[in-house]
Structure formats: C-alpha cells, structure tokens
Amino acid sequence: MRLATPNFPAAGGDIGFPTVNRNATNHATGNHSSDEKLVVAVRVRPLKSDEGEKILHILDDKTIVLDDDTDKKDILRQKRTSDKHYNFDFAFGENSTQEEVYDLTTRSLVRDVLLGYNATVFAYGATGAGKTHTMVGTPSQPGIMVRALNDLFTSIADKAPPHRVKLSYLELYNENIRDLFNPSAGFLDLREDTGPLKTPTVAGLTEIEASSTSEVMGLLLRGNKERSVEPTAANKTSSRSHALLSVIVTREEEDEKRTGRLYMLDLAGSERASNTKNRGKRLVEGAHINRSLLALGNVINALSGSGNGSRYVNYRDSKLTRLLRNALSGNCRTVMVGHVSPAAANRDETRNTLLYASRATRISHKVEKNELEVNWQVTQYRDMISDLRSEIGRLKSKLDSERPTSAEIRGRSSGTPVKHLREQIIATFREQMKLRRRLMDIDGHLMSLGIEAERQHQIISQWEARRSKLYTRSGSRPNTSAGAENGNEVSVHEAWSELSYIEREQERYVALRSNTLKELEMCREKAVLLENDLPEQLDSETEREMLSLLIRVHELEADKMALQGERLVETHELRRRADMLQRFHRQQRLTDEIITRQRHLIEEGKITLPVDLMELYALYQQEIHATTFSSDTAGIPYSAYDTLPPIKEVDTILERRGYTAMIPQTAESDTQRSSTGGSSSSMTDWELPRLNTGSYGSHGPRSSKTPPTPPPVLFPPIHRT
Ligand SMILES: Nc1ncnc2c1ncn2[C@@H]1O[C@H](COP(=O)(O)OP(=O)(O)OP(=O)(O)O)[C@@H](O)[C@H]1O
Description:
Blueprint: E1 39-44, E2 56-60, E3 63-66, H1 75-80, E4 84-87, E5 90-92, H2 98-105, H3 107-114, E6 118-125, H4 131-135, H5 144-156, E7 163-173, E8 176-179, E9 187-188, E10 190-192, E11 200-202, E12 208-210, H6 213-225, E13 229-230, E14 238-239, E15 242-253, E16 256-266, H7 273-276, H8 280-304, H9 319-323, H10 325-329, E17 333-340, H11 347-360, H12 365-400, H13 406-411, H14 418-470, H15 482-532, H16 534-537, H17 541-604, H18 611-633, H19 639-642, H20 648-656, H21 667-676
Helix pairs in contact: 3-5, 5-6, 12-14, 12-17, 14-15, 14-17, 18-20
Bound molecules: adenosine-5'-triphosphate.
The site of adenosine-5'-triphosphate has 17 residues, from helix 4 and strand 14.
C-alpha cells in the first residue's frame, strides 16, 4: 500500500528526545522487540519530619528497594525474606525535581502530540503520596500539566500554519463526571463511539481555546478550585476525585488536518479505611475511588497477562477505565507515574503501588490493539451474517405461507402496483448488497491501514531504542556519526508523518463505516416494510420465483461473509506468525553476537570451561548444522557458517558423552581443522581452541554440485573491528 507523505515540520528541536527504551521484553506475552509498551515511572515523595523511619531506597535510576519488614531480631524469618527490588523505566528519589520528572516522562509526549499522535500521562498512588504535586504542582514548582502546556505553546509559537489548542478539564467524582470549566452544567454522560476502539466522548464537555501558558494557568487554577478536595487523616488537601485535563492540538492546512491529543490525569488516592479513619460521606467516596482504582488495577493485570492467563480485558467496570480505554489499550503513547511515600506507616500502600506499577511495566499496547481490531471485525461479520440469516428465515416463511384464494385475488384493488413493488424490493436488496460490500471494503482498508500503522510504529520504536542507547539520563549526547543520525531522523520523521496521515485516514474510514452502517440499517428497515406487503401479493409463480431468488441471493451473501470473516482471521494469524518469525530472527542474531563476544572474552582470558557449558556449546553447534542443512535445501545460503573454525575438543567430549552420531565427520572438516589451526594438542579438554582471527575464507562458496555437507564448526566467524 502506498501512502502519501504529508510534509510535516521536523520533530525534536525545542522538545527534546525520548529517553525510554520501548523495546523491552514483554515477559507476560512472550513478545519481544518493538511492542509499544506503557512507560512506567515511580516517584518517592520526601519523608516528612514527623514520619519517623524510612523504608524505601532508590538503588539506581530504575530501581526502588523496599526494606524488608520482618522483625530484624527474628533470625529465622530474616533468612526467609529479603528486601524487595522493583524495576521501572524511571525511578525518582525524594530529591527529584519537578523539571527532572517532567523531562523524562512527558517532554517527549508533547512532541508526539504536535506530530498528530495521542498521548497520556497519569499519576497513580495512595493518598498523600504526591500525585497532585507532580501533576499540578505549585506556582513556584509547577507540575507536569503546566510544563507540558508551556512547552506546547513555546513550540507552536510563530509556526505556520497556526495551531489551535483546545482544553477540557473534567473530574470523576463518585462515578459522576463533572466539567471543571463549567461545574454548573451538572453531571455529564460518557459515551463510546461505535468504532473498533470505542473511543470515549463526554457529551456537553466545555472546550476552551487557549494560546498562552498564563491563560492556561488561570484556567487550571479555576478548574482545580472546583475539584472535590477534602481533608483526610492521611492528607490535609486530599483530592477525592480523578481529574482529567485533555489538550487537543489541531493544525489545519488547505486539504490536511492534523490532530494530536494529550491527556493528563491526576488520580484520586487509594486509601485504607483504617488509615484515614473515614466515616459516612468519606467512606462512600473512598469506596468509589477504590472501586475505580481496582478496575484500573484489573485492567492493568489483564493487559500485563498476569492472573490466570486470560486475555479478556474488562474496561466496563468503572468510568475511569472506560475513559482510559484508548490510553491503555493502544493508539496512544502512555506514561504512568506511580507515587509512593517512604514512611514506614504507609508500607502497605507503598507495596501495593510498587506492585501495580511493576505489573504495568509488562503492558504491551500493540498486541491488545491487534486483537481488539480483529475480534471487532469478526464480530461485525458475525452480526451481518446473523442479520442475513434472519432475513432469509422471514422470506422463507412468507414463501411457505398459503397462496391467496381466487376470490381474494379478485377482491384486490385493481390499482395495486405489483410490478412496481417488485422493482422496489429488488432495488432495495441491490442497495443492501452494495452497502454490505462497501462495508467489507472499508474493513479491508482499515485492516491495511492498521498493518501499515504498525510498520511505522516499529520504525519509530526501533529508532527510539537506538536513541535511548545514545542518550544518557542527563540528556548528554555522545559522539556519533552526524550523517547517520540525520539519515535516521529523516526516516523517523517520515514515519511520524506517515503515521499521522494513517491515523487521519483511519478516522475518516471509521466515520465512513459508521455512515454506511446507518444507511444499511435504513435500507433494511425499508426492505422489511416492503416485505410486509408481500404475502397478499404473491399470487403468481413469477412472484414466488422472485422471492426464491432473493432468498438464494441472501444465502450466497451470508456464505460470502462467512468466508470473508475466516479469511480475515487467517490473514491475522499469518501476520502474527510472520511477526514472530521476525522476532526470532532478531533474537537469533543477537544470540550469535553475544556468543561470539563471549568467546572472545573466554579466549582472551584463557578461561577453562566446565563440561556442561562445553556440552551446551556443542548442542548449539548441532543447531547450526541443522540450520545449514535446511537452509541449503531451501536455497538460502548460510555462507557465514561455512567459514567457521573447528572445535576438536568439543567433538572429543561429545564422543565421550555418547553424542558421536550428532557430529558429521568429513574429510573436508579434517582439512578445515588443520587449515584453520583450531586444533591444539596443548589444550585441555575443557578449553576452547584459540580463534584464528585472520581470514576463514579458504572454503569459498559451495559448489552447486557439492552435496550440502555441514562443516564441524561451532561459532559464527568473528570479525574484529
Ligand atoms: N516531591 C515532593 N516534593 C515536595 N513536597 C511533596 C512532594 N510530593 C508531595 N509533596 C507534598 O506532600 C503532600 C501530599 O501531596 P499531594 O497532595 O500531591 O498527594 P496526593 O497523592 O495528590 O494525595 P491525594 O490523593 O490525597 O490527593 C503535599 O503537601 C505536597 O506538597
């Protein structure tokens, strides 16, 4: 599929670069490489003077250690438990600044939003753990919300064409949505569109256009004053609601509109009744807060693949998860900042937050998004097929109904336009078929767009992974080849532009789909009305034949849809397998590189290897032989393995252990041993032979006449740089 590339301005510049490696392994699903994962940071707030003992330590910029809570005097128990280490994308200590937190978590999201991407950052944690401080902050220490908007306005200032920034601010209090810019509007409804992503919308929510940080500060202060804040035993100004600030950035040119959304969410604190000594109203609030946070936790659990292996993700349990659906399930870059208190008194809440946050590190967007789309499309086909089948049933029952008597036929008004009615019915059925076909085309197109979007995501994620290796936490830039970097940046800008175009196309097709569905519904209603007139009109064989034909057409349509649905599932499965293969190839390349480098170290350090490791190396060699055989048969040359040095000692060990049959011995291999100098009588059985770091190319490419004989080699060649 060829997609036009709109000409977007270069990203980066004043917005900086992402520093998170999104290419982490998703242990839960077994997916590796470029899955776009939720970025998880955890911030520890400063210990207050009256809080006593501290139970948290920052080990490094990614690890938090929770002190063991066992009785230090109980030696037996001490042995059984140990301090817990929790790993995140970023760990911020008590002395971390607002700027540091913003820079590493949200700064790059602002750039994404300007390129037409959606992004979400949300603060999670127990009451009084510092969420509002991070998200909103104070006038002297502004938080993420203000900094993000400031960056946004700075970046778009004087840019042509001009950008429009619209804000909305809502709170979710006791499962009710209130407009923080217009609280008098009362409770607002949450709706979901009919598209595959079920995008949530809040009916009647005020959107205010803003153009400067000071204007936004005023709006935010006004909005925050409207938030439901109450003193609790754990926090004097505890936010009792979840607050969501949505920023919509639009750039419009003649024939092109680009929209990016940034969602910033300050969640209400989770709390234990015993800690906050809540009664009455506070208890009800607490129950609602905990319910929605529990729902969020369940969603996080399900998305991370923990629990009993089920992949069903239930967003419907609370408005919070419904609102965050897209942020968590894909189509959005998401950052979660967990907050914890270092005080011993908050140990349980802290442990819970750390557990949730570390589970969240396993969430992968891409997988969920794919499954969502395919499942949704298959459900759509199923619905259409069941519609068709019920229509077939109805038509058949009419066909089976009694023919009218001659007297009835004679008694009909002579003006009944039988012919006209028949034509109308046929026209309506034709229209329905046309609309159903259009729907299938749209679905096919949406699927292709999805595949293309994934490809672009991969390009971007791989670039980001490379980038994160190049940038240190402080953002200092190492010396790299400027040319190569620029080249990469050009392709990543193209990928962003392409992605932005794809997303607009997706929006357009989803709207088209929804209109087509409406048209189809109207057409079906019209057909039913016409059919209702049929029984008394069916007095001739011709009309009965017409009805039989219509039934047949419906049956064929239903069969076609069923086939289409099956094809969709198969295509998806093939794509999934192709993805997996690609991942395995990448892993294999990495493994080979690791082994090669380790071998350098072993040989340079003259390290003697244990038997079991030698055996593993030998098994690895067998795998390479197998690959060489099968690749030869498949016509794919594995020339790299043709030039490997021999390992005589490994053969000896294998023989002794009864693996002799596994290594083919050939005259060619013997020649190779002597020519590469791999055999060394001075070595013990457990030593690896010295590597010949010179040229191994003495074999040359295999003659096409020579049968594929694998050389008895162990490792890929080592090219020293
Ligand atoms: N990183 C920090 N540096 C300085 N003070 C902080 C920090 N984090 C939190 N605090 C202070 O701790 C107190 C509680 O923080 P905050 O109100 O942000 O917690 P919260 O998690 O939003 O609580 P709740 O869920 O009850 O609203 C506030 O007085 C805040 O100023």
